[in-house]
Structure formats: structure tokens, C-alpha cells
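In the previous chapter we treated chains in isolation. Here, by contrast, the input contains two separate entities that must be folded as one system, with a combined length of 810 residues.
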Amino acid sequence: MPGPHYTHPIATPIAAAEYRARRDRLLGHPETTDVDGFVWWGNHRVFYLCGFAFAPTERPIALLMRRGGETVLFVPRLEVEHAEAYANVDRVVAYPEYPDVTHPMTHLTKLLRELGLTSAFGGDGDGAPRVMGYRGPKLSEASGASFVALDDVLEATMQVKSPAEIALIRESAYWAGRAHRLLQDATSVGRTETEVEMEAGAGATAELLAAYRGAYRALSWGGSGPFATYRGQIGAHSALPHSLNVNAVFAAGDTLVTGASCPMFGYWSELERTMFIGDPSVEQGIYFGHMLALQDLAIDACRAGRTCSSVDGAVRDYFAEHDLGDAWRHHTGHNVGIRYHEGPFLDVGDDTVMESGMLFTVEPGLYVPGLGGFRHSDTIVVTDDEPEFLTDYPRDLDRLVLDAA
Amino acid sequence: MPGPHYTHPIATPIAAAEYRARRDRLLGHPETTDVDGFVWWGNHRVFYLCGFAFAPTERPIALLMRRGGETVLFVPRLEVEHAEAYANVDRVVAYPEYPDVTHPMTHLTKLLRELGLTSAFGGDGDGAPRVMGYRGPKLSEASGASFVALDDVLEATMQVKSPAEIALIRESAYWAGRAHRLLQDATSVGRTETEVEMEAGAGATAELLAAYRGAYRALSWGGSGPFATYRGQIGAHSALPHSLNVNAVFAAGDTLVTGASCPMFGYWSELERTMFIGDPSVEQGIYFGHMLALQDLAIDACRAGRTCSSVDGAVRDYFAEHDLGDAWRHHTGHNVGIRYHEGPFLDVGDDTVMESGMLFTVEPGLYVPGLGGFRHSDTIVVTDDEPEFLTDYPRDLDRLVLDAA
């Protein structure tokens, strides 16, 4: 049973009509008039445009779109039934295998001709990416059609999220919060990083499966179900912001930095918290206070019509005013969607103007060697008014101090 | 405590001397004499050459190697302490952030000049890859030095594994086997895919952590600790070879296809089995028999001096002789190492000559819509004599039939 926590309706995947609308927006974009259509290789690109989530291997997969014509997914034989079951396309076309006696690009060249993509095609690469040992020619050389790099155009159309996307990310954030609650409750002196993370993930996943009764799909590349982790950010090691698991043992006095999320029909959110085992020292408390002040000012600065750089600029000003430069390590945040990080970035070098419907993680951090790291991350959406939280978890010190007994 | 299962010494990471030897092999390779040195971007490339495992984001990381000079790791500020702790390099050089007001490629260009990489550099890309929204210029345009694509040379030097690499992959296979045993034992009618997978992963991970007493590191991008999964390959859905989790409920009569592995200081193995819930039907038994015969003949064909294509050719001949073409979906196998798949491939189109020390997954599969998929995968090493199994798990039908009660 879902239990007392889960009281709202379950989320549903992106509808077929929205995939069509995304493709139409791209084909109708003023910067794409010079091409006959598109060839997309990247797994996130293909998923965004047709909903097919696949594991990238040495066998290329491509989504072909012809202006005023068919949308075709080009896959190796082993993916045919999978693609036919899940991809929102007009047709699936298969090649036998890679490398095989006839290279996949030879098969693809025939398909380009059949679809009329003979003059110029746009996309995210002139040939398949070199994944897991794949080698092959440029598609322009194999086909004679010219390639136009139009990945920036697709990237730009992905920046503002639709209501359906925001709903999925809000639901992802709900489950991130549940996993984080279980992580926080399971963490205690003497236990290990890995066992606590497994317990939190398993517990939250069981809740989700009970709530969804078979209707949940991750449709993603980062596992299935909610999780919450430390990624090695425990004690002094928390001063390394992008560390990996070191299977630390929790000890009194540790500064802890967490991360939690849940893939939800392909979409992600980000929730991170700074916690302490036992009451923080004066020094820990001071950095926690700066971190919270920085996050407050950054969230408040996320307003439609302002630039991304202005948010990070305000954060950097605070670092300078309080003489905290030694503790600075990274920009304020990033957009989030099908990918865990995506542009635009809350960075002094990104002058993108924020729009209603853009999402950001807001996560200014301070890092002090020997003491630890101090970073909360919340996922917010820019609106016509104040930014709205999609994550929902306590941010105040009192509720983030764990019992040291 | 490790328990009765684990009786051999624990594995240890690749030594600093081996990283140096890898770099020297590359710098001394006859096809690299035209360049001053190298710039490597890919996370697997950087890890192979200096042992630094990092999470790729919008912030580029590059490994620079100068013939007769320093090896330098170029990282964003937030990775400095992490890189200094783990990378086998002479020096770590940091840029502040991406995109920032000064683009990382501007900083990198200065570093190229400082290191004397001013005429030509080799590597896996002319500029940083477009990960998570990264955008930037070609490094040749930014620096004025010319770029020579030498990724194929590095790829070739990675194909034959060292004794230390084989030892790590054998240890990975041991833990894959433990997770698979727990998966098989936990699977029963009415339970769900996800709960059984979590139980198997958690149990095997706890065993590993007890055995390693803090000395285990995954150093990888696919999680930490052993796991065993179905990836949705349950019942009729097992006919989709590269499916994703669908949280199926196990039922009597199901054909099951599994996958198990464990990242071990950066290295992977592959273990997969076909199982049945309850005694197989006549049809299930027939396909299982073909699958086993195919795997036997393919393993036996993996001999030093023969071509990769000859192994897959023998498999395809068997399919043809037994009129099984409709059930064919993919080639026989692939090399495995830091990446879960890598070249050379056991494929009719890959004429690489097998050498002692090359690893392969051997996994010919048959797929029958409505009935299921039939595939074992074992990881073997080519020797001067018979191929040697690194995986060690029952392959016979009797020990792969689960109780249907």
C-alpha cells in the first residue's frame, strides 16, 4: 500500500502529441530552413523527440525526420521489437548488426535517399558517436548530403519546460524527498555510507512501486526508482564536491552532503542537503549560515527577464564581501530535465535571459579542506512572479542535525 | 565477516607504474611520432591513462601528455583536491568554472603553450565533448596547434589486457556470481523484478564490504558494488534483448534472462544466464539447447591466431544450418574492460586476429516473440591454449530451473 505519505495522483509519461509538437517546433524553426530534415544520434536527443529510451552501445541508433514526411527510427536488429513498442515514430527500420559485413552507415545512406534527405541534413553529429568502440565514416561522406550542425537549435528549444515536463520533475522531486528522509533517518554513528544508501533507496522504491501499481517507468539511464546518496561527501571528504562513494563510516562531528533524485518517465530533479552528526561546531555553523544566506539570495534572484549571469554575479559578490573566496568552487546552478545537468547555467558567463518555465538547481557551495563541504540544492521553476520550489524538504539547521549518540 | 564464500585475497587497484607504462607505450607508438603530445577528453581515456575517475559534466576535463615532458590534468576548480588525491599525474592545473567570463579553452590554450604542445597534438577530439550542454570552440582553432585524431591508436593499445587488469576482471566476475546466486535464490512467483534485484545487490554488496574492510573502490560510472538484474527480460518481454526495467511480477512458466556484474577499481565483467520458473516447456527446452550449443562452439572458437569474425561466422552458420534465422538478433560478443562493451567484437565484420590476453563476452542469443529470450553470457580470456573462463556460474539447465510453487 502507498502508506500515509503518498496522497496525490500518480504521474503519467509525456503524451504522443507532445513528441509530435516538439518535432514540429524543430522542423518549423527559422534556423532550420536550409536542411531537408534531421538525423539525431544522442540518446537524450532521440528520447526528447520520440520517447524511445535505449542503452547506447557500439550499435548506432538514429532518429530521422523529414520536413513534411515521415519520422523514422533506425536501429540494429536487436532493438526492433523494443523500438516498435516504445518509440513515437511512423516507422522503425533495422540494420543487421555492427560492424557486420555491410557497415550500418551504408544501410543508413540508402534510407536517407529513400526519405529524400539527399541535399542537406541537420543534427547533432556528422556520423554516429564513438560509443564503446564504434568506428565509422562521416555520414556526409558516406551519403553525399551535407551536414549542418543544428544541435544548438534543439538545445535551445529544450530549455523552457512544458507543464507536462514540470509535472514529471515535481513528482521526481517528491520521491527524491522520500528517499532523502529515509537516508537522514537511517544515518547514525558507526553505520556505513553504502548500507544507509541502500536502505534509503530500497525503502523509497518500495513505496513508489506500491503507489504506482505497475505504472511506473524510469525511462532513464541512471537506474530505476528513487535514491539518496552521499557520494563520499562525509566528514572532511565532503570538501570534495564531485566525489564518488568511498564507503565511509559515519562519526560524530561529521559534516554530511547528500544528493537525492528519482528518474520519472525520463525526467530528473535534484535535491541536496548539508547535515551534521551532532551539534555543529562554531566553524561548521558559520559556513552553514553563509551557505543558507547564499541559497536564499540566489533563489530570490531567479526571475523572468533577468539574466542567468546576474544570479551567479550576486552569489560571487557575497563571497567577495564576506572574504570567502578560498571556499568557492563552482557556479550557482544549472537547468535540469532529461539530463541531470543542462544549459542554461547560473554562471557569470551565461547571459541567457531567464523565462517562465525554465528550471534551475540552486546550489551555491562552500568547501573548507579539513572541515567539509556546505551545499543545499533545490530545484526551482522560474514563474511570472516568485520562483517556485519543486523540491520540498527542510532547509533549516535544526531539522538537519542528526543524533550523535 | 566475509563468510564462508570468500576465501581468496582481495584485489588491489592498478599500480602507478602501470599507468606510466601505458602513457609511455602511447608516446612511443610509431603512429604518434608526428605530434608533440596528447590531449585526452573522454572519461574512460583519462581513467585508463592516469586512474582518475570523474563524473563528466558541462565542465571539461583533459589529460595532457608531452613527449619527454610532464603529464598534466586540466580540471575545473571544484575537482582540484579530488584530482590531486587520485590522479597519477605530475601536476593538476585548474580553471575557475564553465562557462565563466573566460572560457576554459582560453585557459587550456595557455597551458598548451606552457607545455610546448604548440605544433600538433593528438587525442580523441578537437575540443571538449558536448556533455550536458557544454559548448566551445575547436581546440585547434583556439590554440593554433593542429589536431591529429589518434583515438584508434589508444583503442588498439587497450585491447590486450595486462595481468593486473585480468585479475580485476576475474574479481569482478566473482562478485557478479555472488549477486547472481542471490538473485536466483530470491526470485519466486509473485515477487517483483525490482525487489528481487535490490535484495541481490544489497546482499552481495554487504558481503563485499565485509571482505574488503574499507579497501574497495568501484572507480566507475555504473554504481558501486555487485548487482544482478533482469532489465525487464522476464516472460515474453525477455525477447527484447536490450530492454529496461519494467518492474514485472514473476509468474510460473516465465523465461528469464539476467545480467550481473561488479565494478572493481574501474573494471567490469559480464555474466548473464537464461533461467525458467518451473520446468521449461518443450519449446523453451529446444531453444535453451540451441543457445547452449551455440555458446559452447563460440567459446571453443576463441583461440589466439584466429579472427574475431571466424567465431561469429561459426555461430551464424549454426543459425543457418538449424533454420534459426528468425531468432537471430545480434553478434556473438565483445571485449570488456573499463567499458562494459569495447572492441574488438566477435562479429562477422571484425577481422581482428585474437591474441592471448584479449577478453570476450561470449553470448550468442535467440529471441522468440511471445516465448522469450535465450542467452548466457560468460567472460573469457584468450590464452595460448584453451580459452579460460573468468566467470564461474552453472550453465546447465538443471541448475537454472526455479521452483514454480
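The first strand of chain B starts at residue 37 and ends at 40. Chain B touches chain A through 74 residues (CB under 8 Å). Compare these points with the single-chain example from earlier in the chapter.
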